[in-house]
From TrEMBL:
The lineage of its organism: Eukaryota, Fungi, Dikarya, Basidiomycota, Agaricomycotina. GO terms for biological process: negative regulation of TOR signaling; regulation of small GTPase mediated signal transduction. Residues 243-256 have a biased composition (Polar residues). Pfam families: DUF3384, Rap_GAP, Tuberin. Residues 181-205, 238-273, 427-479 are annotated as: Disordered. Residues 979-1227 form the Rap-GAP domain. Keywords: GTPase activation. The keyword Oxidoreductase does not apply. Transmembrane segments: none annotated. This is Rap-GAP domain-containing protein.
Length: 1227
């Protein structure tokens, strides 16, 4: 029995014994002097105490006060009794641990000092000495913490202890890793190769992995993660204010009661006369005061978004993440030897930690991925819900590079903000969520209150006739309100701080990969599953599927917001088992949006202000990325995916928009499945063309569909009508809105979008009309014309867009001729008669909506007739047969026609053996062309263009107002100048687009412009974006400022054209670098003036929008290859996955494509926040995006600089020609 117990017992006997108390304590404190006399010491320090006295105090450890405990601790520190070079140092540590931790000692200050001594001084000293560190961990730290760590309430102690355990686990692993490397360096190469090729770990690797204290440490940390959460009730609901106050009060009362019962020498000394003590000991009052203020200042209510900030489960989770990060991303241990292996203790243990984290996040009931040589996975989730969110945050940031090496993506919250905003998970939208929750609660409570009032009225009225029991039996219970939570406090809000440890940079791990398609075991179908080599991504995806099938809305909402970002990193999900789980993920999401298993908003019990359409809108973001995984899916799964998108075509923008974008992408990637649902898609689109924000995506879908004739080759006239109705319906809606006054001061961006969309509507009409077969076109022209007339704008007398459309329809109803004539060899030859001293004369007439121009030779009879209309020009070269043909040998013989016909028909003549032309030698005047009549040779004929005009345009004698008549354009200069202006206004728009290649590591403008070559994948992309043209002497194709006289801008360029546009691609890699231009001014002159820039980015970093410094930075289409173009091009044809054999399931190249827009340019295109595009679809899709972006940028710049609404309206070249023709007619 200790002396303090004796003192306590004596003090309870009465006043007589109180005289002995001070005497006994005085004796105890005089012992150091007595022991010093009996056992002299050479120390002269006044604070010196004899070891036997220290041993005596340790034996009384549970009865000491802070001052006495300080004497013991000071002695152990001063004498270095706990350091490794002291004999019995581990036992000395245990003496302190037993005295102050494993006893009933309540001395907080002493415990903190011992903890600092153990975790900082001793552990720090032994860290770099493996032998001592192992002894410390095995004999002290692990046994001690197994007994104490889970039960302690000291958060500071727990953090320090976990940090020491993390360092111990990492240090031990790295040492064993290096030992294995040294062993492999001494082994034969064949033995190492055999070990690497094995699907299972060798005995040596297994022993190295599971030996030591690593498993005991991870088990201890996992046990801490299972400690009940401080701020979590048994049901997992965040602690309310009343609960927090109650908890704080109880904690405070326990603290006070604990201090009142503290049995210490100092406590007794306060009640009796104390003896004289040394002034070297600390004041207990200061210690007690510091401890008292902690509880008094504690806030009873946790701050918003700070729930569970001090939960021990969180610290345990962060410790496991720290172990994984240090093992995978610590580079130092890779430098000692050059021998690398696919399976090492560090990678093996990282996988074990990864599985532990998955178990703490969402334990699966059956572990299908576990093998006999791996330890059991954690089977119970972390008790703190915030800890589970942290695990999910970390997992969602994992990525894989083109070599399948993992890395951690930092600062991704900004990319997820648009998704989180839909679920009220941002700082800006959270207040809206709380207000919506309160409004919903009040709204739902009103009917129940009214029902209770009605019930009370019925009860009072029937109380005299019915018994009270019967009346009560008819009363109705208040309805159950789904998801009402009056203490709504979400566990995560964006943006938020990353609590877990991440590498300083996004450098990939050298030891951890997600897949290796070249692994030898993959070539053997009978081989066992490979374990311990790659990160078990399949298990991770399986956990995600479990979360989505579960009920935890906090986890589900986080997965839905961040999953699209991770799915874009397609290389992270390679491998057979991962593919299986990805297919399951597709089914889970598709069935969720389709409601196969009922409404998942009820399953998740979401807040009432979150609706099913909100969840579906987020889920569609992931489904649209999963289009890129089509190579892993079966036919029915691909069909279900397209069906899910078609089902989302509803009136709400947030829901319909991602579905429209995904369906547009499916035209390129899932063509045959879109064809199956095409009629349903068109039917749904007819119902939702109401807002501009949706109309742009609907029209983009129609345009993309119109370019793919195989999808609608079996359309009937009625089905074509429905397509035209969609476009015309929006035109009608736009015209109705434009009849209202336009206020540019509110939003020029909205007006820009409106102008762009009306242009897309007419463009879709043109695309689909050209898709019709010629016999079908006359049948649909009346329908299109009638609908356009019905929807014409009432604001203006003449709807110019409709008039231009009518003119265009008249051009293409009966033919597909080009919109502008090309200069042929025949025209060049016959219209330049050397006999004529004057150039051919031209006369023009205004005839209806056209200008008819006739150019004729005076003598040869050759003429051209050109019809100039708003949407194009038609030119005919003709020979007037009324003019005699003067043969060879005659005076003024026609020396032009014969050579021209010979050249024009040279192929026919050559096939006939040169017998197509014969001559009559009997002529008196020389050789003549056989078949010429004498009358044609005796007459000198002169023709004026008016002769042809009169013959073609005159209706004499039947002239009336109903008869078309031409009006001569006077030959005066002002009329001719106006006519030239019309003819020089292009009918085909010209577009300039830059194509930039960013090589690995490049970030600056000079580096990018200086590239003269690119990777194989870049060159492959470039060859598909357009047609290669030669620049020198080029006259038929628009070159956008490229030099056509010399090769100063390169010999070749890529261009693309159709009936509407000519596009030239300014490609710096095809332009030479000039020594006198260190800043590549020539390239910058061309690229800098382009509105749209296609950026093929292989830099490995995000491309900054303003990298190319220019005033015309409007749109960037950034293409990032998921596999860098370092090797050969993979063929487009890939082998779908089979159930029997398996090598590498995905042999197709994929690219991430993003659109960067300048402020003020509306969103456009099917990419949304970024999509994955296959190699065969990439050039076509990117070209269409660049084309749309250029049109939008042109309208944006025009509207930005406009001073009023009238001048802000964008006028196309066709409308400019129409207006000029109208002005000419009025002159």
């Amino acid at each position: 029995m200790g002396y303090r117990n004796w003192l306590n017992r004596k003090s309870s006997e009465g006043a007589k014994s109180s005289i002995l108390l001070p005497l006994f304590e005085a004796v105890i404190h005089q012992l150091p002097k007595s022991i010093a006399h009996l056992h002299p010491s050479t120390s002269t320090s006044p604070a010196y105490f004899h070891p036997r006295y220290i041993d005596l105090l340790l034996k009384l450890g549970s009865h000491l006060d802070e001052e006495d405990a300080g004497i013991v601790i000071d002695y152990y520190q001063r004498e270095c009794l706990c350091l490794p070079f002291t004999s019995g140092w581990t036992e000395n540590i245990w003496k302190l641990v037993r005295a102050f931790f494993l006893s009933l000692s309540p001395l907080e200050v002493a415990r903190k000092r011992v903890a600092k001594l153990l975790f900082t001084d001793i552990a720090g000293f032994a860290q770099d000495m493996p032998e001592y560190r192992v002894e410390l961990v095995d004999k002290v730290l692990v046994p001690f913490l197994q007994e104490y760590l889970v039960t302690t309430q000291d958060d500071g102690f727990q953090k320090d202890a976990l940090a020491v355990l993390v360092n111990a686990a990492v240090a031990e692993t790295l040492e064993r890793d290096e030992e294995r490397r040294e062993i492999r360096a001494q082994s034969a190469a064949s033995a190492n190769a055999e070990e690497d090729a094995s699907p299972e770990a060798s005995r040596e690797v297994t022993e190295a992995t599971f030996a030591g204290s690593f498993n005991a440490i991870r088990a201890l940390i996992a046990e801490v993660a299972h400690i009940p959460c401080k701020e979590e009730s048994a049901g997992g609901i965040p602690m309310s204010a009343s609960m927090a106050e109650s908890g704080s009060a109880n904690s405070l009362s326990r603290s006070v009661s604990g201090k009142a019962k503290e049995p210490s020498l100092r406590t007794l000394k306060g009640t009796i006369s104390p003896p004289v003590r040394s002034t070297q000991l600390p004041s207990i009052s200061s210690i007690s005061g510091a401890g008292a203020t902690t509880d008094e200042q504690a806030s009873p209510v946790p701050a918003i978004h700070q729930h569970h900030a001090d939960c021990r489960s969180i610290q345990a989770v962060l410790s496991l993440i720290s172990i994984f990060t240090k093992l995978c991303f610590t580079p130092s241990f890779h430098n000692t030897t050059n021998t690398k292996a696919v399976r090492m203790p560090a990678s093996f243990r990282s996988i074990i930690i990864f599985r532990d984290l998955l178990g703490l996040l969402y334990p699966m009931t059956d572990d299908r991925t576990r093998h006999t040589n791996t330890p059991a996975q954690v089977k119970m989730a972390a008790r703190c819900p915030r800890a589970r969110i942290i695990i999910l945050e970390w997992l969602m940031r994992l990525r894989a590079d083109n070599h399948h090496r993992i890395f951690v993506r930092r600062n991704i919250d900004d990319a997820a903000l648009p998704f989180a905003a839909m679920l009220r998970r941002t700082k800006d939208t959270e207040a809206e969520g709380r207000a919506a929750e309160a409004d919903e609660s009040r709204r739902r409570s009103r009917p129940s209150q009214q029902a209770r009032a009605q019930e009370e009225d019925r009860g009072r009225a029937s109380r005299s006739q019915e018994s009270s029991t019967r009346s009560r039996s008819r009363s109705k219970a208040a309805p159950i309100v789904r998801g009402v939570d009056h203490t709504y406090n979400p566990l995560w809000i964006l943006p938020q701080e990353e609590l877990f440890e991440v590498p300083r940079s996004e450098q990939p791990s050298e030891i951890m990969t997600t897949y290796n398609p070249s692994h030898p075991a993959l070539q053997d179908p009978t081989a066992k599953p490979i374990d311990g080599v790659w990160l078990p991504v399949s298990q991770y995806v399986r956990v995600l599927n479990g979360i989505l099938r579960g009920h935890d809305w906090e986890l589900v909402s986080y997965v839905l917001c961040f999953l699209p970002l991770q799915l874009r990193n397609k290389l992270f999900f390679h491998g057979r088992r991962a593919v299986t789980e990805v297919r399951a993920l597709v089914r889970v999401l598709a069935e969720g949006v389709l409601g196969v298993d009922g409404s998942w908003e009820k399953r998740y019990n979401v807040p009432t202000f979150i609706k099913r359409v909100d969840i579906n809108a987020i889920a569609y973001q992931s489904l649209s990325i999963l289009i890129a995984y089509r190579g892993t899916m079966a036919r029915d799964e691909c069909d279900q995916l397209v069906q899910a998108f078609a089902d989302g075509l509803q009136g709400r923008k947030d829901l319909a928009k991602p579905c429209l974008q995904a369906l547009t992408l499916c035209i390129f990637e899932l063509e045959q499945y879109v064809g199956r649902h095409l009629l349903t898609i068109i039917d749904r689109m007819e119902r939702i063309v109401t807002t501009t924000a949706l109309a742009i995506h609907i029209l983009e879908f129609l345009i993309a569909l119109g370019h793919n004739g195989s999808l609608y080759r079996n359309f009937t006239d009625e089905q074509y009508r429905r397509v035209f109705h969609i476009a015309i319906d929006y035109i009608t809606i736009h015209n109705a809105r434009s009849d209202e006054p336009i206020d540019l001061s509110k939003s020029r961006e909205d007006y820009t979008l409106s102008q762009h969309v009306i242009g897309l509507a007419y463009y879709s009409i043109y695309i689909w009309f050209l898709a019709l077969k010629l016999p079908q076109r006359p049948n649909l022209v009346p329908e299109i014309t009638r609908k356009l007339l019905q929807g014409r704008s009432k604001r203006v007398m003449v709807d110019e867009m409709a008039e231009v459309c009518f003119d265009w329809l008249s051009r293409y109803t009966y033919g597909n001729a080009d919109p502008r004539p090309a200069t042929s060899f025949l025209s060049e030859a016959v219209m330049k008669d050397s006999r004529e001293s004057e150039v051919p004369k031209s006369v023009s007439w205004l005839l209806g909506g056209a200008i008819l121009t006739i150019t004729a030779h005076a003598r040869s009879g050759w003429a051209t007739i050109t019809s100039t209309r708003p949407t194009g020009s038609t030119s005919v070269v003709l020979k007037l047969e009324n003019v005699p043909l003067l043969e060879l040998g005659e005076t003024n013989a026609d020396l032009i026609s014969l050579p021209a016909f010979l050249m024009a028909n040279r192929e026919v003549i050559a096939k006939a053996g040169g017998s197509a032309v014969s001559f009559d030698a009997s002529s008196l005047h020389g050789f003549i062309w056989s078949g010429a009549t004498p009358s044609q040779r005796r007459k000198d004929v002169v023709i004026h263009p008016s002769y042809l005009g009169l013959q073609l345009l005159s209706s004499y004698p039947n002239q009336s107002l109903e008869t078309p008549r031409g009006r001569l354009v006077p030959p005066e200069e002002k009329f001719q100048r106006a006519l030239r202006g019309i003819q020089n206004t292009p009918v085909i728009d010209t577009v300039k687009i830059a194509v930039l290649y960013v090589a690995p590591g490049q970030t600056t403008e000079t580096e990018i412009l200086g590239n003269i070559d690119g990777s194989p994948l870049y060159l492959d992309f470039l060859s598909g974006i357009g047609r290669l043209i030669k620049l020198k002497g080029q006259v038929d194709v628009f070159v956008g400022g490229l030099n056509r006289d010399t090769d100063s801008d390169g010999e070749y360029a890529y261009a693309w054209w159709d009936d509407f546009d000519q596009v030239i691609f300014h490609t710096p890699t095809m332009m030479p670098n000039h020594p006198d231009q260190p800043g590549y001014d020539g390239k910058k002159r061309l690229v800098g003036n382009d509105f749209v820039k296609i950026v093929y980015n292989e830099s490995g970093k995000d491309f900054a929008f303003d990298t190319i410094r220019t005033a015309w930075n409007f749109v960037n289409v950034v293409v990032t290859p998921l596999t860098l173009g370092e090797g050969t091009i993979i063929p487009e044809v890939y082998t779908p996955p089979s159930e029997d054999g398996w090598t590498d399931w995905d042999r197709e190249e994929w690219f991430k494509v993003d659109i960067q827009r300048a402020p003020g340019i509306p969103e456009f295109g099917p990419l949304g926040e970024g999509k994955l595009v296959s190699r065969h679809a990439l050039p076509i899709l990117v070209r269409q995006l660049a084309h749309l972006g250029n049109d939008l940028a042109a309208r944006f710049m025009h509207i930005r600089d406009a001073s009023d609404a009238e001048s802000a309206e964008y006028i196309s070249s066709w409308r400019s020609r129409l207006r000029a023709m109208s002005r000419l007619r009025e002159m």
